[in-house]
Amino acid sequence: MKQRWWRKKLTLMLIAGANRRIVRLKLPEISLLAMPTAALAIAAGTSLAFVMLHDRYEADRTAMQTKFDGTEQQLQVTIADKDAELSLLQTSLIELTRQSEQFKAKVNEIKQLKQVLAVMTDVGGTPSGGATVPATDGGSPSSAGPMGGSGEPPSAAEVARTIAETRQSLSSMLEEMNGLMTSLNESEAKLSEAEHVRSITPTLWPTPSHLVTSGFGIRVDPFTEKPAMHTGIDFAGAPNDPVYAAAEGKVTKASFDGEHGNYIVIGHGRGLETEYLHMNRLLVKSGQTVKKGQQIGLMGSTGRSTGTHLHYEVHKNGVPIDPRPYLITNRKEDEKP
């Protein structure tokens, strides 16, 4: 029977040397075909592995490059943001310094105002030689005139130092401002109180004429020709001359009787009261509030009177007192600021 070809065997002789034993290996004939195939498979597998490793390497390299590019871009954005923040900080510092200068100018103005209020309310000294504070706009570049110098940006240390100094300066000025405002509030309260007292004190002459025909005190009564107490001052004048309220207050009486004629009584507070007698006509009513210097009637000779005049009285806590010491201002003078 004929032997199949793949069952045939080949003898492979390995001769190590002339005097050495010859090694004989019997291999199937089919191995001659299997060996190239195996070699080809190994080569193909190696190539495939190389390609796969190369692709993996390229993928990893691409991923790392993308990540690096993203990180670099993010760092660039962060650096740009920091530069913008630093520029804004420097700009804010310049504005803060300008505001600090304006704040100093306001403090000086308040100091001067405090001195003026102190003089007006008699609660302090007088202004030192009338010194004035130079006008300032806080050092703004638009009004500072020609400028020059280096354009080199400030360092971080310079910015930090300037911020610290400006903050300390503003803190000190804020404390000073608080003290000044407290003092000003006290002075304003005293000034307001002084102005109120001035408005309700009967310092105004009640008639345009300052001609006194009969003063306060004991006199000979023109009707009985006997000594009698005259509890006010008589001012001479022409019929229908204006009669003014000597101080701010409220009309408590506006009436007529046989002794006083047409008369008005005004209460001013703090125990002060003024009376206006013998008028020809009344221009206000009971319960009405009147201002200092407001016209309240027309001079006449009604009631117990010998001629045209105004009988004027000042009462303190219900007791008639001499009005003359109160009469220190004219109507026009009192209206001045």
TrEMBL record:
InterPro entries: Cell_wall_metabolism_enzyme, Dup_hybrid_motif, M23ase_b-sheet_dom
Transmembrane segments: 30-53
Keywords attached to this entry: Membrane, Signal, Transmembrane, Transmembrane helix
Domain M23ase beta-sheet core: 229-323
SUPFAM superfamilies listed in its UniProt record: Duplicated hybrid motif
Chain segments carrying region Disordered: 125-157
PANTHER family: L-ALA--D-GLU ENDOPEPTIDASE, PEPTIDASE-RELATED
The name this protein goes by in its record: M23ase beta-sheet core domain-containing protein
